[in-house]
Design brief:
Blueprint: H1 2-22, E1 24-26, H2 28-38, H3 40-61, E2 66-76, H4 79-88, H5 99-103, E3 108-122, H6 126-192, H7 198-233, E4 240-242, H8 256-266, H9 268-288, E5 294-305, E6 311-322, H10 330-396, H11 402-437
Parallel strand pairs: 1-4
Antiparallel strand pairs: 2-3, 3-5, 5-6
Length: 441
């Protein structure tokens, strides 16, 4: 049994060691590059953009002639069809004028081959409007694809720093746990010497137990943070060691009006909203084309035969014009529907313009506040560490209470965690500001 337990421990240790060796270093830029290649949201947006581009080709194709090959087979004794088929086959004979043949003809086989060419000449502007609608849709899809890339970059950045924050919090908790255990040892020694009461020792044990529980929770948050990052970069099986340092943002910040103007110029989703307005406007023009006449050119070449040995051939040329006079108010309702879509697109674009101002201002204020919080948190950490050092020294000589030392331990841990959070917040608000202005790359 002992050998089996020893084997299990060695196997587990070797597995964990191999797993740790497989972990690759991963910086933030590396994570973003992997996500741009593998993230499914980005790939789906790119396919959506490609599909929209094909609609442009379809709209252009409507301007070109349409060529159809039509093959037909009939076997009938219907008098009119037999009569016309004989003429088309160029096999009509004098005997076919007999009344009996006209009224009760012998069933006739006819194989027809027809090449038909149709070319629209005038559609009341419908084809041009459809093309502009497709082009605007394709451009909107491209801009939305760019925005999806930016949003994924932000989410990867957010997940990366949250994972690093979880790792940093775990280190802080482990440091506090080591310090609490060392203090527990001192409290035990003083209690055994009769220099401290048992309550001090027990209270310190409670703190150690609380920190051990907090360490377990921190380890779980690290695992969850890594799992979320793996999902966003589209590489679920990879294991990484995050190498990015948690340092506060120190880049220059422009004034709010300049940032808002930059966002209005660069935001891909705002450009996409503008294209949606143009697309719906073109849809209104396309629907209104229903009030105009259409003109088309048609030509066809046809061959008819019974046995493939000979055939009758003919051709025809048509110019067709159509002008709908009444369609049950369908055109009117279609125009009203497209105008409603157009007004909706305009409202969404205007709302996005206003939302952009709010997003930029929110990110800017958050960044400036996070920077100030970093400065305050640094001072708090220094003061908390000095206070803990003094209280530990005083406790050793019986000049400080145990509860004061324990409170100081908790204060140091909280101050260090606040500093980590403030630094991460400054990085995230910088990324949020870049996302809001459309400059996140």
């Amino acid at each position: 049994m002992r050998y089996w337990a020893l084997f299990s421990v060695l196997f587990l240790s070797s597995t964990l060691s191999a797993h740790a060796q497989e972990a690759k270093p991963l910086g933030l830029k590396d994570a973003i590059e992997i996500a741009l290649k593998n993230n499914r949201q980005i790939l789906a947006a790119e396919w959506q953009s490609r599909a929209a581009e094909r609609s442009v080709g379809q709209a252009k194709g409507a301007f070109l002639p349409r060529i159809d090959l039509v093959e037909g087979f009939s076997y009938t004794d219907k008098p009119t069809m037999v009569f016309s088929s004989l003429l088309d086959q160029a096999s009509f004979k004098q005997r076919n004028f007999a009344v009996s043949s006209l009224n009760e003809p012998t069933p006739l086989t006819n194989l027809s081959s027809q090449v038909r060419v149709e070319q629209p000449l005038y559609t009341g502007g419908k084809l041009s409007a459809d093309l502009r609608q497709a082009e605007a849709g394709a451009q909107a899809s491209q801009e939305q694809s760019r925005r999806t890339r930016q949003e994924v970059i932000f989410r990867v950045t957010e997940a990366y720093y949250h994972a690093r924050l979880s790792e940093g919090n775990l280190i802080v908790v482990e440091k506090a746990l080591d310090s609490a255990r060392a203090h527990l040892e001192r409290a035990r020694n003083l209690f055994e010497k009769g220099l401290a009461i048992r309550a001090d020792y027990l209270r310190t044990e409670v703190l150690v137990g609380s920190l051990e529980r907090e360490k377990i929770e921190a380890e779980n948050r690290v695992r969850v943070g890594h799992a979320r990052l793996r999902h966003l970069v589209g590489s679920v099986e990879e294991r990484w060691t995050l190498t990015g340092q948690i340092v506060e943002d120190g880049l220059p910040v422009e004034e709010l009006p300049l940032l808002v103007a930059e966002a209005k110029e660069l935001r891909p989703d705002l450009k996409a909203a503008g294209q949606e307005v143009e697309k719906t406007s073109a849809a209104v023009r396309s629907a209104a084309a229903g009030y105009h006449p259409s003109l088309g050119f048609v030509t066809q070449f046809e061959g008819n035969t019974r046995r493939f040995t000979s055939s009758g051939e003919n051709f025809a040329v048509f110019v067709t014009a159509r002008w709908n006079l009444f369609s049950g108010f369908i055109t009117q309702e279609k125009i009203a529907q497209e105008e409603a879509f157009h007004q909706r697109a305009r409202l969404l674009r205007d709302d996005l313009l206003q939302a952009i101002h709010v997003e930029v201002e929110q990110a800017l204020l958050g960044l400036l506040a996070a920077r100030r919080q970093v400065g305050v948190a640094k001072e708090n950490v220094a003061q908390a560490e000095e206070s803990l050092r003094i209280l530990k020294d005083r406790y050793e000589v019986g000049l400080a209470r145990n509860i004061d030392v324990l409170d100081a331990e908790v204060t140091v841990k909280k101050a260090e965690q606040d500093l980590l959070q403030a630094r991460v917040n400054s990085r995230l608000f910088r990324a949020m500001l870049n996302l809001a202005t459309g400059t996140l790359q």
